[in-house]
Recover the amino acids of this structure.
C-alpha cells in the first residue's frame, strides 16, 4: 500500500478483477489473513471464508488477561508515524489506544539487576539516513514487501554497514531487533534490519488499551465473511479449476471448495529449518498438509524460522523496577547463550508479573529448558519466582539467508509462486514479521492480484459503504407495533383518515402536530380532534364565503409561513373539495424575486380564485408592497413581479372566531372519487415554465400508504420534521404519513434548522423520535456542526430512531458514512438510514433502501443504493429504459432513464396536455397495457438494487436547489449584448472534474457545480466584466452560484440537427478541454486607494494618493468586515455607517436570494468558495468575518499574514500619525468642556426628577395625614430609598435616550477614530456618563437581576439567567452575553482601546454557561466560547478566542447555595427589597445623625430638614445631595468656614453611625438561624454600601482595621491595610500581625461562580505582604513572611509556603527566601507571562536580612496617630476642602433660584462643573501644601509624618475624583489637572489618561506625545520595600506612543520606550525597561 495516500482513497479507485461472488478461502486469522479479508471486502468480494485453527483470531498478536490486566504476548506496540495501516484499522473499529510515555527502555545486568537507560533516539537517528536512502531507491519499483529491498540490501548486515561506512548496528537498534524475535543482527541480510528500523520507533509508541487481540477480534466480527475458528486444515489440494480444503472442526471433517486460496499460516514451511539449530533439524510436521509443487518445495526448503518463547512469571523482589522493557546485554550479543532470556518486560506499575523473551533451537533448548534459564536469571538478579504463569512458543520470523536472497528468492516467490495454482501467500516471510508490515503487504497483494484500476469495471458490482459492521451498525430497527385498541383502517382518502383518527376515542385527544421554536419549546399544537374541527371551520367558510364565491374544484393559493395554520387550511380545502395549491411564501418585504414570479405564473396558469393566508403575513405583504411602491417611483415597474390581484382570506381568523361554533349544520359532501384532483404540486426550481403536477386523491393515499408500509410507520410513530411543508417531501412524506399512521409529529421551520442544525438531533433525542427525513445537504450541515460542537452533545440518545431517510437530492456516500460515524455513539444504527428516491410526478415516494436488514450499498462509482427493485410489485414497478430507443435495458448495470409505473403517479401537468402525455403516459413494447412515467433521471439496476447516476432532463440540483437549465440559459443570454441568443448551455459538472481543473465548489454543493458555456457575437471584444455580469445575474434571478463561465467562438456550440443544444456533449467538451474558447481581454485595473484620516468623523476615508501594488497577502478580518458592510449597503441602500457588525445579513431585510448573491461576491472577493449556508447561519457580520478569516487560513495557507513586506501606505494595520492644527485642538478641548456639562445634565436631571417627585409625594401625603405629624416623618423615611431607586431607573433611561441615541458612534472594528475628532468626543461623553452612573448607582445593583436590566437598557445583549456582579462593562452596545453566564466582582469588560491617539472598537461575545472569575479583564474582540472558564485576574487578550477547557477542580470545599441563582419572580422581589434596605439603612443613619444634632443644639425638628436628611442619606453621593439641598432650600450659610464645618460634620457623623448600623445589621443577619441565599447576598450588599459610602476613606489607618473587626474580621496588630476592595464576608478573613495589604489589593472571601456563591476562609499570617492589585481567593492560606507580588493570585485552597515570594496569576513563580539563608533562592513553575529576570528583580527588591524581620511594628505614638490623627485627617480634611469648594457655587445657585427666579434644573449642571473645577484646584493646592514635591530615589518610613500627610492628600484626591474629576479622565482637562499636580505630560499632542491611578504620585509620572494610559491602570511612583517598613519613590516614564493597558501596574523606575506597550493586566517590575517590539 502507498503509505502517503489514505487507504480509503486507494480502495475507492479500484475495481474487483474477479466476480464478486468468487469463493475465496483464507487459511489463518492472524493479522495477514484478516488484513487480506478486509481488502477483499473493501473491493466488494462477498464470498470470503477464513479458517483458523485456534479458538480466537489474532495469530501471534495474542493477548491474555492475568489478574484482571491484559498482557500482549506477541505483537505489542506500534509507532504513530510508521503504522498507517494499523492505525486505519484502529479508527475503522474504534479501537482505543494508549501512549506508553512512561515505558522505560534500559539494559539490565543479569547478575545484579542494575539497569541503565539506553539512548534510543540517538541510535535510531544514526541509521535514519540509510533507511531513507533505501526507501527512496525502492519508491517506484512497483514491488511489495521484502521483495522491494531484496536486491539492494541482501548483504549480511556487517558487510552492508561496512560498505556504507558504518561500523555496526547501534546498540539500541540491535537490541530491539534481537529482543523482538528476529535473530542476531550479524546473521541477517540488511533487508530485514531495514524493514525493522523503518517501522519501529517512528513517533510516539502506543498500544491497544484492551490488548492487540481486541483489534483483530473486532475486525473479524465486523467483516462480512464466514469465520471458522477451532478449525484445523487437514489437507489442501489445488488444480487449475479451484482449491479443495479438507477441514476438521469439533471432530467433524468437512471438505470445502474455493476458487482461490490465500495462505497465511505455516503450511509452506514444512521444508524449512530452525534458526541457530543443527543443520539437519527441520520444522516438525506429522503429515504433508498441502500438495506442494517442486518450486514451492525448493523455495520453502530455504526458509529458516526462529524458535521463540514468551514466558510469563510472577516474581517477588523486583518490585523496584519501573515499568519498561529491559535488555539482557550479554545474552543479546552472544548467540551461544541461546535459551537465556534476551529481554524482560514489566507491563504495569504495582504489578510483580514480568514477561521474558527467549530463543530456543527446537532440539535440546525448548520450553522447560527456556523456563529454567529464565528462573536462574531472576534469582541472580535477587528475585524470587512465585509462579510461572504460562509460556507460549512461536515459530516466528520466517526468513532466508543472504545468499538465497541474492539468488533471487523473493523474485521467484513473487513472480512465479504468487497466483500459481490459484494460491497466494501472505505473512512474515513475504512482508517481514511485523504486524504493520504483514497488514500492509496483505492488502497490497490483494490490490495487486484481485483488483484493477481501470476507469470502468469488468462487470457490474456493488460493495458495502461500511466494510466493517460494528454491533451498533448491525442492530436492526425495532418494530413499533400499534397502540392498544388501535387498528389501522383501510380508507380511501386523506380526509377520511383525519375524520377517523379525529373521532377515534384513543386518538381524538392525542397530539398530532407540535410546532416548536428555535429553543425547542412547543409554541402551538394540534390534536387530531382540533385539526378535524379547524378543517371543518375553514371548509365551512370556504363554501359559504361570498367574496369571492368559491365552488368545489376551484383552486386557491396557500401562502403560509411555516406553522400549523397551513395544515389547518390544507385540510379545510380537502374537506370543502377546493383544490389547494401550496407555494413557497416569499419574503413579503422583498422587491422582486423568483418566488414572487412563480406565484404570478401559477396564479395565471391555474385560474386561482383566492389566496389563503394569515392576517400577520398579509399585513407584512401590504407593508412590503407600500415600501416597494415608494422605492420604485419613477422606475420601470412593468418589469417587476407583483402579487396577483386576488382576494386574501385569513384562515387563522376564521379558526379563532369559530372556536365556539357548533358545526353540526355542516353538510357532509361525501368522499371524493379516487380520480379527482386533490391538489396541485408545483415542481421547485421553475420560474417562467412552472409545471403543476395534478395529484389525485387515489394517487395521494396510495403513496402515503406505500410509505407507511415501507417506513414501518404505526400509531406509535413519532416523526420529527423541519422540511418545507408546502412541497412533497415535507408535506406528503412527513405530515400526511404521520397522520395516516395515527402517529404524532414534532415540526419546526426550515429556517430554524438552517440556523441551528443540531436542533434536529436534539429534538429527535428529546421526543424519542422514530422517523425523520432530510436531504443530503442537511446531513452535510449537521456533520459540520457535529465535528465543531462534539463536546456539547454528550446527552443525545438516538436509539429510538427506526427510520431516517436521506433523499430529495443525490445522496453522497461520504456524507452518510461520516454521519453514521459521528452519531453511532448516540445509538444510531446504519440500518436505520434509508437512502431514498422520489419525485413530485409520483406524489413523492418511489423507493428507499430500507426494511430488508441490508447495509448501505454502493455501486462501483460510489453511488448509493436508493431502493430495491421488484418487477412483481404492484405498488411500484421500476424499469431502466434506453432514452434513445425507448426499449428496456434488462442487463444488470446498464445505465438508462428510470421509468416508473405506480398508482401513485400524478395524472399530468395542469394545462400542459402535450407534456403530460410525453411524461406520464408511456408504454413499453414488452409490457403492454401498463402506463409508465418518465422521470428524466438516469440510473442502473444491479442485483435488484437501484442506483441513481445522473439526470437526462434539463434539471440540475446544486446546493439543494432545483435548477432548470432552460431558465438559467434565458437569464444568461439577456445578461450581455455580446452573447448570441439560443447559443448557451448551462450544465451541471461533477465536483471531481471541477476540482481537477482547479475550480473549487463550496461544501454542500451536492457533487455538482453549475457551468455556463455561451457563444459570443462576431467581432465583439470580451472582458472579464462579461463573466462577472453573467454570474451576478444568475445569482440574482435563481439564487445559485456559477462555478465557471466559458465563452466560446460563434457557431461552435454542440447542437442536434434540429438545433437543440447537446448539453451532454458540452459537458464532455468542458471536461476534455476541447471547447473553442475566445481570448478574454483584461479588465481595467483599478488603482489601490490610500487611506487618510478624517478629522470631522475620525474614520478612515478614501484618498487619491496611489501607491505601488503590494505583494499579495491574506485578506484581513477588517477588510472582510468592510466588504460585507458594503455588500449590505449595496443591496439595501442603508448607509455603511449605519450597519452594525453585531447584526446579520437577514436582519437588514436581505432574503435568501440576496444571501446567495452576497455569497457569490464574497467568494470572488476571498478567491475562495464559500457556502451560502455559512453566510445565512452566521449570527452576525463579525462572526461571518471570523469564519471567512479561518477559511482563508485553511484554504490559502501559502499566503502570508505578516504584512511587514507591504508598503506602509497600503498596510491595513498602519498607525496613522496625523498633524492637527492648534485651532482644531482648541475646538476639541472646548467641546470636551461642553461635554462635561452635557454629562452633568444627563446625571443631574434624573436626580432632580427624583427629588421633586419625592417632595411632591411627601407634601401630598402630609395633607392626607394632617394631625399626625409623626406619620409625615415616617413617610419621609420610608420613601426616601424609593426616590433613590427611582433615581437609578431614571438615570439609566436618561442615558439610554439622551446618551446612546445621540452620542453612540459607529461601532466598527475597522474604524480608527482620532481623539481629535468629534466622533471621539461624542463617544467619550457617552462612555463617561455610563461609567460614572454605573460606579455611583449601578454598583448597588450588583448580583441582582436589575443590573442585567441596567446594561440591557444601555445596549448590551444579555441572555437569560445571567448573573452580573460587576459594573465595569464599557460600551455595552458591543457586548453580547449568552445564557447562564456568571461574571464575578471586579471583572472589566472593555470593548474599546485608545492607543497612539486612535480609538478602536471590537465587540465582545461571551458564550452561554461561561464563568469569569474576579477581577479578570476581557478586552476588545474577545470571544469566550460556550462553557469556558476565565480564572481570577486573568485577561483575555484582544481578538482572543477562549474555548471550553477540561473540567477544572479548584480543590476547595465550596459553599454552594441551595437556591439556584437565576431570575425568578421571588429573586426580583428579594433583590428589590435588598436594594431598598441599603438605602433605608443610609437614610436611617442620617436621621439618627439629625436627631443627635437637634438634641445637642436644642433645635426643633423641621419636616423640611427631616425630608432633606432622609433623601440625602439615601442618595449620599455628594453631587446628588447638593442637588437635593439646592432644590429644597433657598438659603446657604453666609460663612464658608461654618458651611464647610457643617458639611464635614454631617458626613462624618453619618458615616460613623452608618458603620455602627451596618455592623449591627450584618451581625443580626449572621446570627439568624436560617442562612438563606438572600441573607448572604444582603449582608454583602450592606457591607459593600458601607465601604463605598464612608469606610474606604479610612484605608491605611488603624481605624480601618477596627472597622473590619467590627464586621467580624480577625485583624492582628500593626497592620497596614491600604485601599482594598469591599470584603463581601469579612468574618471569613483572618489577618495576622504586621501584615501589609498593598494599594488596590483584593481580598475575596466569597464570589459568584458558575455553580453558585463560593466562599471560604482566608488566612494571612504574620509579617506577610500582599502586593498591589493582587487577589487572594477563598480558602487561601498565606503563611508567615510570605510576599505575594503585585498582580498575583493566591488561588482557591492554595497554601503559600512560609518565607516564599510568589508572583503570577496562573501559576505562581516561587522564590524561596529562607530565614536562615537569604541567598537560598530558586524558581519553579514560573508563569508564562512573567520572565525569570522579573522574578529575580522582585526577589532583590523584597529580600530580607538575617538580622531583621519583615515587620511593621509601630511605636505607641505611631499607633495613636494611626488610630486617631490619621483617620481624622483622612476624613475631615477632604470634606472640608470639598465644602469650601462647593460653598460659593452653591450660594450662587440658591441666589439665582430665589432672587432671579431661574429654573433650578438649568443651574444645577453648571453648578456641578463650576464646583468641580474649584474642588480640583483645591486638591492641587492641598497637594503642594501637604506633600510637596517628592524626589526619585527618596525613601520614607511607612508610619512617618510624610506618609501620613500623603495618605491625607490621597484621601482628598479620592473624594475630589469621586465628586467630579473622575468624570474628566480621558480628556484634555484631566491632563491639565495632572500637569498642575506636578506630572510631566506633553500638553500638545494626543496624550490620553483614563485612570486616577496615574495620580498616585503625579510628580513621578512623565508621559510624552501620544502616550496612553488605560482604564484603572496604576502608575506607582512608590514601592513598599519591606526593609523596616520603608517606602521608596521612583519615576515612571511613558515614551512617545507608549501604551499602558487597562489595570496594568507600573512600578517605580519603569520606562516605556517609544512605541512600546505594557499590556492590560500586566506588571512592569521595578526599574524595568519596556522595549518596543
Amino acid at each position: 500500500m502507498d503509505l502517503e495516500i489514505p487507504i480509503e482513497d486507494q480502495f475507492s479507485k479500484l475495481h474487483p478483477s474477479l466476480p464478486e461472488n468468487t469463493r475465496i478461502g483464507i487459511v489463518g486469522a492472524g493479522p495477514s489473513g484478516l488484513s487480506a479479508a478486509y481488502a477483499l471486502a473493501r473491493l466488494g468480494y462477498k464470498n470470503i471464508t477464513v479458517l483458523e485453527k485456534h479458538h480466537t483470531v489474532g495469530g501471534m498478536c495474542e493477548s491474555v488477561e492475568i489478574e484482571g490486566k491484559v498482557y500482549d504476548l506477541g505483537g505489542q506496540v506500534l509507532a504513530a508515524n510508521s503504522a498507517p495501516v494499523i492505525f486505519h484499522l484502529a479508527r475503522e473499529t474504534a479501537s482505543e489506544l494508549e501512549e506508553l510515555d512512561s515505558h522505560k527502555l534500559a539494559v539490565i545486568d543479569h547478575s545484579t539487576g542494575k539497569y541503565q537507560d539506553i539512548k534510543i533516539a540517538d541510535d535510531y537517528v544514526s541509521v535514519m539516513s540509510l533507511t531513507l536512502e533505501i526507501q527512496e531507491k525502492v519508491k517506484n519499483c512497483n514491488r511489495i514487501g521484502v521483495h522491494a529491498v531484496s536486491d539492494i540490501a541482501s548483504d549480511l548486515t556487517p558487510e552492508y554497514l561496512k560498505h556504507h561506512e558504518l561500523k555496526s548496528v547501534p546498540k539500541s537498534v540491535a537490541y530491539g531487533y534481537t529482543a523482538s524475535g528476529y535473530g542476531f543482527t550479524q546473521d541477517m541480510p540488511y533487508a530485514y534490519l531495514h524493514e525493522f528500523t523503518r517501522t519501529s520507533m517512528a513517533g510516539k509508541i502506543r498500544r491497544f488499551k484492551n490488548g492487540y487481540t481486541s483489534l483483530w477480534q473486532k475486525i473479524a466480527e465486523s467483516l462480512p465473511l464466514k469465520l471458522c475458528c477451532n478449525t484445523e486444515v487437514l489437507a489442501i489440494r489445488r488444480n487449475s479449476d479451484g482449491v479443495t480444503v479438507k477441514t476438521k472442526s469439533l471432530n467433524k471433517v468437512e471438505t470445502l471448495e474455493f476458487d482461490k486460496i490465500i495462505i497465511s499460516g505455516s503450511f509452506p514451511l514444512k521444508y524449512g529449518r530452525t534458526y541457530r539449530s543443527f543443520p539437519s533439524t527441520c520444522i516438525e510436521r506429522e503429515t504433508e498438509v498441502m500438495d506442494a509443487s517442486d518450486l514451492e518445495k525448493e523455495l520453502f526448503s530455504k526458509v529458516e524460522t526462529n524458535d521463540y518463547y514468551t514466558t510469563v512469571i510472577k516474581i517477588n523482589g523486583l518490585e523496584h523496577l519501573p515499568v519498561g522493557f529491559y535488555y539482557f546485554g550479554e545474552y543479546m550479543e552472544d548467540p551461544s547463550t541461546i535459551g537465556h532470556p534476551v529481554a524482560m518486560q514489566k507491563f504495569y506499575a504495582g504489578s510483580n508479573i514480568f514477561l521474558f523473551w527467549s530463543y530456543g533451537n527446537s532440539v535440546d533448548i525448548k520450553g522447560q529448558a527456556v523456563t529454567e534459564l529464565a528462573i536462574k536469571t531472576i534469582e541472580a538478579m535477587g528475585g524470587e519466582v512465585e509462579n510461572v504463569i504460562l509460556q507460549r512458543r512461536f515459530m516466528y520470523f520466517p526468513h532466508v539467508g543472504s545468499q538465497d536472497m541474492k539468488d533471487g528468492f523473493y523474485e521467484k516467490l513473487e513472480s512465479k509462486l504468487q497466483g500459481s495454482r490459484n494460491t497466494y501467500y501472505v505473512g512474515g516471510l513475504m512482508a517481514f514479521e511485523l504486524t504493520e508490515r504483514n497488514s500492509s503487504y496483505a492488502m497490497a497483494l490483494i490490490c495487486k492480484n484481485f483488483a484493477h484500476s481501470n476507469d470502468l469495471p469488468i462487470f457490474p458490482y456493488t460493495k458495502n459503504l461500511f466494510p466493517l459492521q460494528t454491533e451498533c451498525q448491525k442492530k436492526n430497527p425495532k418494530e413499533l407495533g400499534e397502540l392498544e385498541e388501535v387498528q389501522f383502517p383501510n380508507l380511501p382518502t386523506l380526509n377520511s383518515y383525519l375524520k377517523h383518527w379525529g373521532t377515534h376515542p384513543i386518538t381524538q385527544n392525542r397530539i398530532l402536530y407540535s410546532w416548536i421554536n428555535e429553543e425547542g419549546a412547543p409554541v402551538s399544537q394540534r390534536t387530531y380532534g382540533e385539526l378535524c374541527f379547524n378543517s371543518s371551520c375553514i371548509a365551512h367558510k370556504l363554501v359559504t364565503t361570498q367574496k369571492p364565491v368559491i365552488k368545489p374544484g376551484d383552486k386557491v393559493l396557500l401562502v403560509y409561513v411555516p406553522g400549523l395554520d397551513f395544515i389547518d387550511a390544507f385540510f379545510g380545502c380537502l374537506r370543502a373539495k377546493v383544490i389547494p395549491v401550496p407555494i413557497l411564501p416569499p419574503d413579503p418585504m422583498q422587491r422582486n424575486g423568483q418566488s414572487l414570479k412563480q406565484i404570478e405564473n401559477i396564479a395565471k396558469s391555474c385560474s386561482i380564485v383566492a389566496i389563503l393566508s394569515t392576517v400577520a403575513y398579509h399585513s407584512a405583504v401590504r407593508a412590503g408592497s407600500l415600501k416597494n411602491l415608494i422605492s420604485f417611483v419613477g422606475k420601470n415597474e412593468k418589469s417587476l413581479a407583483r402579487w396577483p390581484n386576488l382576494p386574501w382570506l385569513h384562515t387563522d381568523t376564521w379558526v379563532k372566531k369559530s372556536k365556539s361554533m357548533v358545526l353540526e349544520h355542516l353538510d357532509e359532501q361525501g368522499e371524493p372519487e379516487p380520480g379527482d384532483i386533490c391538489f396541485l404540486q408545483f415542481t421547485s426550481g421553475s420560474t417562467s415554465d412552472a409545471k403543476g403536477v395534478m395529484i389525485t386523491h387515489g394517487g395521494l393515499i396510495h403513496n402515503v400508504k406505500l410509505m407507511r408500509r415501507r417506513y414501518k410507520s404505526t400509531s406509535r410513530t413519532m416523526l420529527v420534521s423541519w422540511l418545507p411543508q408546502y412541497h412533497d417531501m415535507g408535506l406528503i412524506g412527513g405530515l400526511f404519513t404521520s397522520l395516516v399512521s395515527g402517529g404524532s409529529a414534532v415540526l419546526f421551520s426550515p429556517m430554524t434548522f438552517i440556523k441551528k442544525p443540531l436542533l434536529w438531533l436534539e429534538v429527535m433525542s428529546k421526543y424519542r423520535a422514530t422517523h425523520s427525513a432530510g436531504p443530503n445537504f442537511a446531513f452535510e450541515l449537521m456533520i459540520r456542526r457535529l465535528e465543531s460542537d462534539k463536546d456539547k452533545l454528550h446527552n443525545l440518545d438516538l436509539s429510538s430512531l427506526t427510520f431516517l431517510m436521506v433523499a430529495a437530492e443525490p445522496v453522497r456516500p461520504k456524507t452518510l458514512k461520516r454521519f453514521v460515524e459521528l452519531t453511532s455513539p448516540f445509538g444510531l444504527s446504519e440500518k436505520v438510514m434509508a437512502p431514498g428516491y422520489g419525485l413530485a410526478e409520483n406524489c413523492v415516494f418511489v423507493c428507499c433502501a430500507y426494511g430488508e436488514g441490508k447495509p448501505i450499498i454502493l455501486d462501483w462509482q460510489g453511488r448509493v443504493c436508493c431502493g430495491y427493485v421488484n418487477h412483481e410489485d404492484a405498488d411500484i414497478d421500476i424499469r431502466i429504459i434506453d432514452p434513445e430507443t425507448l426499449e428496456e435495458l434488462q442487463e444488470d448495470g446498464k445505465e438508462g432513464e428510470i421509468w416508473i409505473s405506480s398508482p401513485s403517479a400524478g395524472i399530468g401537468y395542469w394545462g400542459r396536455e402535450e407534456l403530460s402525455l410525453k411524461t406520464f403516459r408511456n408504454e413499453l413494447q414488452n409490457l403492454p397495457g401498463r402506463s409508465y412515467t418518465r422521470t428524466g433521471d438516469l440510473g442502473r439496476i444491479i442485483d435488484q438494487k437501484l442506483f441513481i447516476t445522473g439526470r437526462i432532463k434539463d434539471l440540475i440540483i446544486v446546493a439543494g436547489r432545483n435548477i432548470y437549465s432552460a431558465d438559467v440559459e434565458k437569464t444568461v443570454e439577456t445578461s450581455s449584448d455580446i452573447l448570441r441568443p439560443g447559443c448557451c448551455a448551462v450544465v451541471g459538472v461533477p465536483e471531481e472534474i471541477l476540482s481537477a481543473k482547479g475550480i473549487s465548489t463550496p461544501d454542500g454543493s451536492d457533487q455538482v457545480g453549475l457551468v455556463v458555456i455561451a457563444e459570443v457575437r462576431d467581432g465583439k471584444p470580451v472582458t472579464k466584466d462579461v463573466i462577472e455580469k453573467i454570474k451576478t445575474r444568475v445569482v440574482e434571478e435563481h439564487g445559485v452560484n456559477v462555478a465557471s463561465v466559458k465563452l466560446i467562438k460563434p457557431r461552435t456550440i454542440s447542437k442536434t440537427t434540429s438545433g437543440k443544444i447537446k448539453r451532454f456533449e458540452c459537458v464532455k467538451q468542458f471536461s476534455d478541454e476541447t471547447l473553442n474558447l475566445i481570448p478574454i481581454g483584461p479588465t481595467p485595473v483599478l488603482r489601490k486607494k490610500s487611506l487618510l484620516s478624517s478629522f470631522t468623523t475620525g474614520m478612515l476615508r478614501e484618498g487619491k494618493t496611489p501607491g505601488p501594488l503590494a505583494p499579495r497577502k491574506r485578506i484581513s478580518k477588517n477588510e472582510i468586515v468592510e466588504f460585507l458592510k458594503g455588500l449590505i449597503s449595496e443591496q439595501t441602500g442603508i448607509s455603511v455607517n449605519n450597519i452594525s457588525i453585531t447584526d446579520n445579513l437577514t436582519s437588514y431585510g436581505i432574503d435568501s436570494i440576496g444571501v446567495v448573491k452576497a455569497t457569490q461576491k464574497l467568494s470572488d472577493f476571498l478567491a475562495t468558495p464559500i457556502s451560502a449556508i455559512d453566510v445565512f447561519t452566521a449570527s452576525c457580520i463579525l462572526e461571518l468575518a471570523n469564519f471567512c478569516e479561518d477559511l482563508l487560513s485553511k484554504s490559502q495557507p501559502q499566503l502570508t499574514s505578516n504584512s511587514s513586506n507591504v508598503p506602509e501606505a497600503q498596510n491595513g494595520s498602519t498607525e496613522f500619525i496625523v498633524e492637527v492644527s492648534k485651532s482644531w485642538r482648541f475646538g476639541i478641548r472646548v467641546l470636551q468642556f461642553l461635554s462635561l456639562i452635557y454629562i452633568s445634565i444627563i446625571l443631574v436631571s434624573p436626580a432632580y426628577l427624583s427629588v421633586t417627585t419625592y417632595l411632591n409625594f411627601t407634601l401630598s401625603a402630609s395633607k392626607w395625614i394632617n394631625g399626625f405629624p409623626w406619620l409625615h416623618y415616617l413617610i419621609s423615611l420610608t420613601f426616601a430609598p424609593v426616590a433613590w431607586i427611582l433615581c437609578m431607573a431614571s438615570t439609566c433611561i436618561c442615558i439610554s435616550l439622551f446618551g446612546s441615541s445621540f452620542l453612540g458612534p459607529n461601532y466598527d472594528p475597522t474604524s480608527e477614530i482620532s481623539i481629535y475628532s468629534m466622533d471621539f468626543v461624542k463617544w467619550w461623553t457617552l462612555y463617561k456618563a455610563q461609567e460614572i452612573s454605573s460606579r455611583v448607582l449601578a454598583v448597588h445593583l450588583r448580583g441582582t437581576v436589575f443590573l442585567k436590566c441596567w446594561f440591557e437598557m444601555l445596549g448590551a445583549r444579555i441572555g437569560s439567567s445571567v448573573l452580573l456582579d460587576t459594573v465595569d462593562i464599557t460600551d455595552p452596545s458591543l457586548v453580547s452575553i449568552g445564557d447562564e453566564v456568571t461574571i464575578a466582582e471586579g471583572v472589566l469588560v472593555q470593548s474599546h482601546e485608545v492607543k497612539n491617539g486612535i480609538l478602536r472598537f471590537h465587540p465582545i461575545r461571551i458564550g452561554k454557561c461561561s464563568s469569569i472569575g474576579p477581577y479578570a479583564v476581557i478586552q476588545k474582540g474577545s470571544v469566550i466560547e460556550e462553557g469556558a472558564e476565565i480564572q481570577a485576574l486573568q485577561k483575555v487578550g484582544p481578538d482572543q478566542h477562549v474555548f471550553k477547557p477540561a473540567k477544572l477542580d479548584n480543590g476547595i470545599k465550596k459553599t454552594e447555595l441551595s437556591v439556584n441563582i437565576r431570575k425568578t419572580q421571588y429573586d426580583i422581589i428579594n433583590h428589590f427589597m435588598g436594594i431598598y434596605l441599603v438605602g433605608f439603612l443610609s437614610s436611617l443613619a442620617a436621621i439618627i445623625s439629625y436627631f443627635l444634632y437637634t438634641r445637642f443644639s436644642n433645635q426643633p425638628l423641621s419636616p423640611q430638614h427631616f425630608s432633606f436628611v432622609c433623601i440625602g442619606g439615601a442618595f449620599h453621593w455628594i453631587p446628588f445631595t447638593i442637588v437635593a439641598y439646592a432644590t429644597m432650600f433657598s438659603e446657604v450659610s453666609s460663612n464658608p468656614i461654618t458651611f464647610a464645618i457643617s458639611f464635614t460634620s454631617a458626613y462624618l457623623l453619618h458615616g460613623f453611625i452608618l458603620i455602627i448600623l451596618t455592623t449591627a445589621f450584618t451581625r443580626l443577619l449572621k446570627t439568624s438561624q436560617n442562612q438563606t441565599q438572600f441573607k448572604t447576598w444582603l449582608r454583602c450588599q450592606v457591607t459593600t454600601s458601607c465601604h463605598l459610602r464612608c469606610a474606604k476613606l479610612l484605608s491605611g489607618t488603624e481605624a480601618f482595621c477596627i472597622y473590619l473587626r467590627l464586621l467580624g474580621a480577625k485583624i492582628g496588630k500593626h497592620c497596614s491595610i491600604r485601599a482594598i476592595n469591599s470584603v463581601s464576608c469579612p468574618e471569613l478573613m483572618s489577618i495576622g500581625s504586621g501584615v501589609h495589604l498593598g494599594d488596590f489589593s483584593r481580598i475575596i472571601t466569597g464570589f459568584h461562580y458558575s455553580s453558585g456563591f463560593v466562599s471560604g476562609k482566608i488566612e494571612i499570617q504574620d509579617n506577610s505582604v500582599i502586593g498591589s492589585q493582587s487577589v487572594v481567593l477563598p480558602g487561601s492560606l498565606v503563611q508567615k513572611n510570605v510576599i505575594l507580588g503585585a498582580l498575583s493570585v493566591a488561588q482557591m485552597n492554595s497554601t503559600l509556603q512560609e518565607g516564599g515570594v510568589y508572583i503570577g496569576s496562573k501559576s505562581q513563580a516561587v522564590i524561596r527566601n529562607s530565614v536562615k539563608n537569604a541567598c537560598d533562592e530558586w524558581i519553579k513553575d514560573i508563569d508564562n507571562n512573567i520572565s525569570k529576570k522579573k522574578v529575580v528583580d522582585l526577589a532583590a527588591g523584597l529580600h530580607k536580612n538575617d538580622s531583621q524581620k519583615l515587620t511593621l511594628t509601630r511605636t505607641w505614638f505611631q499607633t495613636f496617630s494611626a488610630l486617631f490623627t490619621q483617620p481624622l485627617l483622612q476624613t475631615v480634611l477632604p470634606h472640608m476642602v470639598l465644602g469650601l469648594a462647593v460653598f460659593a457655587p452653591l450660594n450662587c445657585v440658591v441666589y439665582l433660584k430665589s432672587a432671579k427666579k431661574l429654573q433650578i434644573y438649568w443651574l444645577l449642571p453648571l453648578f456641578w462643573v463650576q464646583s468641580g473645577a474649584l474642588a480640583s484646584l483645591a486638591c492641587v493646592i492641598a497637594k503642594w501644601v501637604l506633600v510637596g514635591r517628592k524626589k526619585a530615589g527618596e525613601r520614607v518610613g511607612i508610619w512617618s509624618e510624610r506618609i501620613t500627610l500623603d495618605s491625607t492628600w490621597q484621601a482628598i484626591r479620592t473624594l475630589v475624583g469621586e465628586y467630579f474629576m473622575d468624570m474628566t479622565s480621558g480628556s484634555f482637562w484631566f491632563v491639565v489637572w495632572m500637569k498642575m499636580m506636578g506630572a510631566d505630560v506633553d500638553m500638545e499632542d494626543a496624550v490620553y489618561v483614563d485612570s486616577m491611578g496615574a495620580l498616585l504620585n503625579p510628580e513621578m509620572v512623565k508621559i510624552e506625545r501620544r502616550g496612553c494610559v488605560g482604564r484603572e491602570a496604576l502608575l506607582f511612583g512608590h514601592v513598599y520595600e519591606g526593609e523596616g517598613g520603608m517606602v521608596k519613590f521612583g519615576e515612571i516614564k511613558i515614551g512617545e506612543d507608549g501604551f499602558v493597558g487597562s489595570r496594568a501596574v507600573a512600578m517605580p523606575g519603569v520606562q516605556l520606550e517609544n512605541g512600546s506597550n505594557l499590556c492590560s493586566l500586566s506588571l512592569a517590575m521595578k526599574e524595568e525597561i519596556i522595549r518596543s517590539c
